[in-house]
């Protein structure tokens, strides 16, 4: 990126579309538009006349005759009387007339009104087209006048090793984050498991208090007490081994019971115990499942963290005009992570409330790391990033221009993103910078 | 000196061609106007045909011929209008053909003019160098 290679061509827009030509074209379209407007007005007048006529024709047959002033020549009138008020001679067009009654005449006039309406609609559609055209020509003229340039560049795929070196620092950052997270999470998981284990033990103790009445099961109570006193670090192993012990003891107890056929009540209690043990095991499984899930989530987030910078890199190499689009995508990326974060936090709320408080800030930190790492990644290609930052400013122009053209503005427009404000101060003369690159 | 006479000749040629082109453009514009008129007439005739179709059998139909209204049979009027529509459609087709023809001619003329202009430019450039 840093080597001044000439990859694309930069052509000022004004060379392709001279300002005067664009303006002339815009004017012509405006003229056509006003013509259409006149036509529309005329048709609307026709419609008004037609409705008036309909009203008149409907009213005439209400009387047998009307006293009217008959026009005679250009300026003279004489009084007259209108008779046969329900007989009309209607001009159908092309010199054809027909004798019609009032009702039939109104029907004809209504049909004519409909035809006029359709005409109005078509004219309006045409006017809309013209308006779009006019706005386009105006925009082109303005762009040409402001000295926009079109940049065309071949898409060249970057070396993957280069990319890795660029994004390596980011990966390290993200991994350090996730490590811290992991330790934290493990602590919390551990605490949660411990509390759960305590619960289980209490339950067992309660069960064993019952059993203590039966002196057969005193050993079990002892082991339980021992467990409680034992070091907390080794609880996992102890739990498992204790379960084994339980089973063995029960087996032994059962054997014993088989021998002592009097103690039938004991077997029942033993069964109860074994049930409880099974429950413990399943609970334990659930825990480990959850841990695994959480780890998975961590992992996926790591991936997501390291991915966006690479993507942006790719896009920069392609020098795509869609830099603006890139920013949008970044935002959407961020929002995506936000969404997942929310989902995850909800999960955690389900499992334990205490964890939620410590989890949220971490996750936020992670999300915050995304934009900062992006800034880093954009630094290696300073020239390019500057260019892209400039290009991304006139977002609306990009949309208006033909596809495949990158439009450049002098930095008048205020930008919102951090990156843009950073670089816009440096890049005050965009055109000269391009010239430098072309050399 | 030879080059200057050639230049003058070329300029004369260019003028002639430009005149031809403007004539062609006028023709095309006229053709468009006629075409517009015919399309309007076609629309009107179709409207009339529709209305005639809606009239019942015994209705009185008149045709304005000059200053007088002449009573006509409904069937006759119908046939007349139909014939007129046919005629106008045929005319429109013909006009389309001529317009296309004229536009082709116009394009070839434009190209020719462009070539002449280029030749003039190259001649002038050679002169400036010499």
TrEMBL record, chain A:
Residues 414-425 have a biased composition (Low complexity). Residues 166-183, 320-333 have a biased composition (Polar residues). Residues 19-46 form a coiled coil. GO terms for cellular component: nucleus. The keyword Membrane does not apply. It holds the Pfam family Prefoldin. GO terms for biological process: negative regulation of transcription by RNA polymerase II; protein folding; response to cold. The keyword Coiled coil applies. Residues 156-186, 210-234, 253-333, 356-439 are annotated as: Disordered. PANTHER family: RNA POLYMERASE II SUBUNIT 5-MEDIATING PROTEIN NNX3, UNCONVENTIONAL PREFOLDIN RPB5 INTERACTOR 1. This is RNA polymerase II subunit 5-mediating protein homolog. The lineage of its organism: Eukaryota, Viridiplantae, Streptophyta, Embryophyta, Tracheophyta.
UniProtKB/TrEMBL annotation, chain B:
Residues 85-112 form a coiled coil. Keywords: Chaperone, Coiled coil. One of its GO terms (molecular function) is protein-folding chaperone binding. GO terms for cellular component: cytoplasm; prefoldin complex. One of its GO terms (biological process) is protein folding. It comes from the Eukaryota. Belongs to the prefoldin subunit beta family. This is Prefoldin subunit 6.
């Amino acid at each position: 990126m840093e080597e001044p290679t000439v990859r694309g061509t930069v052509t000022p827009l004004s060379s392709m579309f001279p300002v005067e030509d664009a303006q002339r074209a815009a004017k012509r379209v405006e003229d056509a538009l006003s013509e259409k407007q006149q036509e529309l007005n005329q048709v609307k007048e026709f419609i008004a006349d037609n409705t008036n006529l309909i009203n008149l024709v409907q009213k005439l047959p209400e009387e047998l005759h009307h006293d009217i002033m008959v026009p005679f020549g250009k300026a003279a009138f004489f009084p007259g009387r209108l008779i046969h008020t329900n007989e009309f001679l209607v001009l159908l067009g092309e010199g054809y007339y027909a004798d019609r009654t009032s009702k039939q005449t109104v029907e004809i006039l209504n049909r004519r009104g409909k035809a006029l309406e359709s005409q109005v609609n078509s004219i309006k559609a045409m006017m809309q087209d013209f308006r779009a055209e006019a706005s386009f020509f105006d925009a082109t003229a303005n762009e040409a006048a402001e000295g926009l340039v079109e940049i065309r560049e071949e898409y060249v795929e970057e070396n993957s090793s280069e990319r890795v070196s660029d994004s390596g620092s980011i990966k390290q950052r993200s991994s350090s984050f996730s490590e811290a997270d992991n330790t934290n999470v493990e602590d919390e998981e551990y605490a949660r498991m411990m509390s759960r284990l305590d619960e289980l033990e209490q339950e067992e103790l309660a069960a064993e208090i019952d059993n203590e009445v039966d002196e057969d099961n005193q050993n079990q109570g002892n082991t339980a007490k021992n467990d409680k006193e034992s070091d907390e670090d080794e609880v996992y192993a102890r739990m498992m081994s204790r379960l084994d012990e339980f089973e063995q003891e029960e087996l032994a107890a059962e054997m014993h019971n088989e021998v002592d056929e009097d103690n039938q009540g004991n077997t029942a209690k033993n069964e109860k115990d074994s049930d409880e043990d099974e429950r413990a095991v399943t609970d334990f499984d659930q825990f480990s499942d959850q841990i695994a899930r959480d780890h998975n989530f961590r992992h996926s987030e790591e991936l997501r963290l390291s991915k966006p910078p690479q993507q942006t890199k790719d896009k920069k190499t392609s020098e795509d005009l869609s830099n603006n689009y890139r920013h949008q995508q970044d935002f959407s990326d961020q929002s995506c992570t936000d969404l997942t974060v929310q989902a995850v936090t909800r999960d955690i709320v389900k499992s334990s409330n205490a964890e939620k408080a410590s989890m949220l800030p971490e996750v936020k930190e992670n999300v915050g790391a995304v934009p900062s790492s992006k800034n880093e990644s954009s630094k290696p290609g300073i020239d390019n990033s500057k260019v892209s930052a400039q290009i991304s400013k006139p977002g609306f122009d990009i949309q208006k221009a033909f596809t495949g053209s990158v439009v450049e503005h002098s930095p008048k427009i205020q930008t919102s993103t951090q990156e843009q404000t950073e670089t816009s101060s440096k890049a005050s003369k965009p055109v000269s910078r391009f010239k430098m690159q072309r050399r | 000196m030879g080059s200057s006479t050639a230049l003058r000749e070329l300029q004369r040629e260019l003028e002639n061609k430009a005149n031809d082109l403007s004539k062609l453009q006028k023709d095309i514009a006229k053709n468009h106007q006629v075409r517009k008129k015919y399309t309007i007439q076609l629309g009107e005739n179709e409207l009339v045909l529709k209305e005639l179709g809606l009239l019942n059998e015994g209705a009185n139909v008149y045709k304005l011929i000059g200053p007088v209204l002449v009573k006509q049979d409904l069937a006759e009027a119908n046939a007349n209008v139909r014939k007129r529509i046919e005629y106008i459609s045929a005319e429109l087709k013909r006009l389309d053909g001529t317009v296309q023809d004229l536009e082709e001619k116009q394009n070839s003329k434009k190209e020719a003019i462009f070539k002449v202009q280029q030749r003039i430019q190259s001649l002038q450039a050679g002169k400036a160098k010499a």
